[in-house]
Amino acid sequence: MQIHPHSEFDHNPNRRSEEGLQTLLDRLVRTMQRDALVRQTTNQLRESLQVNRVVLYYFYEQWHGQVTFESLSDNEFSILGSTGPDNCFNDEYAALYLAGRVRAIADIELEPIEACHRDFLRNMQVRANLVVPILTPNGLWGLLAAHHCQEPRHWSQSDIEIMQTGAQTLATAPYISTNS
């Protein structure tokens, strides 16, 4: 039988409660920091690109996600909470984005894309679409998408680089890269 000194036993039930509260507060602060960064990034991207909408599509489980943030030129373009076409986004597409794929569509009506993808974009009032992956050390965390809604749009190399910089900013934030 081993005898432990009294100091190794914590007879103060408040200590565990305080530690739990501190853990909760730390998580809340990280969430608020993450949300502020995402909001700032999506707003800056929308203003820089002069588009109707920039969204963060966050994957909450393998290849299932939803729009968790959006920056809008007008509230009529809101798609907050929208989920993707689950039957359309599969392992094949995920692998492309995991490899760093950037998808720039100047006009969804002319681009050779799957019918389910075109219908999905039409339902969201998208005419031109620019999507970049947010890649963390743990994999594909989400997608940043810029949507031009009224007319086709040619995406320049500069537009693509701006979006990639935004995605990299998010991917390397400590409260994002550690929470994947």
Describe the structure.
It contains 5 helices and 5 strands. The chain is of the alpha+beta class and 180 residues long. The chain has helices at residues 13-49, 91-98, 115-123, 157-172, 174-177; strands spanning 53-61, 64-72, 103-105, 128-136, 139-148. It has a 5-stranded antiparallel beta sheet.
Keywords:
180 residues; alpha+beta; five-stranded antiparallel beta sheet; 41% helix
Number of strands: 5
Percent of residues in helices comes to 40-55%
Shape: elongated
SSE ordering: HEEHEHEEHH
- Count the helices. How many? 5
Structural class: alpha+beta
Strand content: 15-25%
Contiguous runs where pLDDT drops below 50 for at least 5 residues: none
End-to-end separation: 44 Å
| Widest sheet: strand ordering | 2-1-5-4-3
Q: Outline the biggest β-sheet.
A: 5 strands, antiparallel
Rg over CA atoms, rounded to whole Å, is 21 Å
Mean pLDDT: 86
Task: Give a brief description.
With 180 residues, this protein is of the alpha+beta class. The chain has helices at residues 13-49, 91-98, 115-123, 157-172, 174-177, and strands at residues 53-61, 64-72, 103-105, 128-136, 139-148.
Q: Secondary structure elements and their pairing?
A:
Layout (H helix, E strand, L loop, with lengths): L12 H37 L3 E9 L2 E9 L18 H8 L4 E3 L9 H9 L4 E9 L2 E10 L8 H16 L1 H4 L3
Helix pairs in contact: 1-4
